Amino acid sequence: MRKYHALPVTLLAALALTACQDGTGTKDEGAARPEPASAAVTATHPAEDGDSGKAAGGTTGTQGTSGATGTDGTSGATGAQPTKGGKTATGDKSANGTTAPRVSCNGSNTTVTAQPVRRPLNHMLLTVKNTGSTMCDLTYYPVLRFDEMQWVPRPIKDSKPQAVTTLAPGESGYAGVSLSAADGSGEWGTTGHRLTVGFQGRTPDSDGGPSALPTLPAKGVYYDSTLTVTYWLRDMDDALTY
Fold first, then answer.
1. Domain boundaries, the chain
2. Are 12 and 151 in contact (CB under 8 A)?
3. I need a surface site. Which of 3, 80, 122, 202 has the fewest CB within 10 A?
């Protein structure tokens, strides 16, 4: 007789509470950066390098006041970054070059389908499509629950990818589900009519957000005690090789 992993209480509760829940995400745009103090300083000394057009510090972006010595730069603190329009170059880089952090894929920013396949025998394919506006991570493996099932299907360890499956907007990830033993050796065979797909967070067995409720065929899906699932993968063919 096979041993099964008990469904963590927090994750099981999350599956039950989020079965019909839709989530939404918000994005922190970040606080505006204060203007550097050096950008507001008016040049009051002539250039020390003999160039009457620029201050010794080599800055070029801040206009000097009328009646100053003709310099068009700041007073040139040693080692200061070049300025343009009153903002430091490092500030511009932070504002324009920062990549938004990835979020977890879950039922609020994806669509999930569950489709039995002819080959391999007794298998089903889960497809998750990123419908959000930012990249999301499919961490670990899906937590499946047919109807009111009280145990968690085991993951297929050999299917674990070398890196987290990350989806750009519009991309899809996959997991293969082995529903029952082909030789009939499984126990407690039954037909499921409702499937809840739970998502894990950044740590194993943590709650990754709202679950998904993909539609199953009208006749349901037969499974037994050998029910297993792959990790989330980028390639559909890979997901169906286990």
1. 5-23+106-239, 47-100
2. no
3. 3
